[in-house]
Structures
1.
Amino acid sequence: MTEKIIQLNWNENDISSEIHRHIKENPLRKKWRVSTNVEADIPKDIPKVRGFADKFPRIDFRLSVFSKNEEYEYFFEAKNLKQKSTALKRRYINTGINNFVSKKYQNGSLIGYLLDGEIDKTIDGVNSLLIKDKRNTEILIIKKNKLFEYYYESNHSNIETLKHLIFNFINIAN
């Protein structure tokens, strides 16, 4: 954030790539023994025929750590968001929330890259689409904890709670 390198016209993979570079360079990552990669394959039990790897779900970030003889993984899926873009908010739902609800992606959270507008109004727009889809019980609700000033949670019957982090790049872009 202090480098102000993120541009508001970047694709989400551009932003994810830059964030990944900073995660890799962070000395705490080594202290905590966390490994990271982008566009991680999440293998599924699918027939092994030509092109099978193309059917793997791919998620934007995978963080993993070993403790004793076990590896623990956590995943993040990122989506661009703009207050006035229904298409991006719909994509956030269809290829973000829905990929966790369907369990295509598991054990993770969503990251929204806010590139235009205000966070609260953008989340209101996402919630309006969920309500329009008769998914009133799945709306995003603001929460607070020690690590984040605020974040959002949504509740889903088959996966319980999904966390949403919204990164506001509007004021830091060059």
2.
Amino acid sequence: MKLPRFDSLFARLLLLQVLVAIALLVVFGVLVYVERNVAVARLVAERWAPALRQAVGADGPMPAVPRELLRSDKRPSPAWRAPVGAPRMAALDDELARRGLKVQDAVIARGAGGAVLWLQLRTADGALRWFGLTDIALLPRIPGRLLLAVLISALLLVAVSWYFTRRLTRPLEELRARMQSQRPGEPTRTAAPIDGASPELAAIESAYDELLQRFERHERERALLLAGVSHDLRSPLARIRMAAGLLPEEPDSAHWREAIVRNTQVADRLIESFLDHVRAGELSLDQNADLAALARAAAGATGHGAAELQVDAPPTLMLVRSHPLLVERLVANLLDNAFKHGKPPVQLLVREEGDSALIEVSDAGAGVPQAQREGLLQAFARGDAARGTPGTGLGLAIVARVVARMGGKLDFARRDGRHVVSVRLPRHP
């Protein structure tokens, strides 16, 4: 059984209820204990009053049962002063005073048979003398039955608090699990209503589902618009590039022809980045992908030799519930980002770590400042160092989108003087 975290709602509610229940039980127990001691003290005073009155020489009836009093002209030593303000002693003094016995002082000392309560009383001749009472009822003790009742009540209250707190927080935990299981780009899964959910929680669930559906609708419309515009732009770009290739090979127009071809290629790469961004959120994660093979293919497509790009990957490393194109674009964008904004040599590392697959791309550049890392994961965001470098600002955004969809984690780090971007993907999500 998994123990609840003490910072969770369940643990806090349970702790609050248990503390309140224990406080009530303590108050109840103290009241019962005080009332019991007061009642016992009055009975003890009633039982010993006749013997004490006879000992001090006061008028009064003879005790029905002779009781042996200890006597002393001096204060017993060693002894400690009895708690005069305690309810038990106050009740004893009050009852004795009501019977004509004014207690001047009271101490507790150790006797042969246990503790002895010594009372200082004034005798008929005006002298102050000490009289000792050996009565087990005067000893402060907590009744075993009271302790047992408090213990049983505490256990019962804890069990009841556990049950009702669990019933209260279980729907919240189920709602949180449903929210966490929803990955970006996946369609909303219709789920049955949460059992035992309160009206407030059901309203939160309904509002979340409605928000998620609106977000998916907006994402589909945006992706459709971006894909349609990108696709429609490719045809005129291809015609422009073809027309530029048909221009006469004359020295005066050669640089214009090269500029046209170069700019159409830049525009084509920009459109390809747009399409990659759309695919990152649209392609279904319903295939297996060999991460090691795709990483080597992406490294080979960069055109950089072994001196500039070093690849360390196992023969094979399979990922389930993924898509080969998305995995390939993820690695390709990491490498492209390292070559554009970092410094060679670039190192690509792929390896298996437990249930995860690790991708690390490092370079000798300055890296991404800590304050800019979060912003660079947004679409079309570019760092200060990349202002003069051709690009679209979509590379890291595509990486972040693919990683989020596959339930992975993206990190930036500085290690051994190199800038490291690492991606950890679950092998069996």
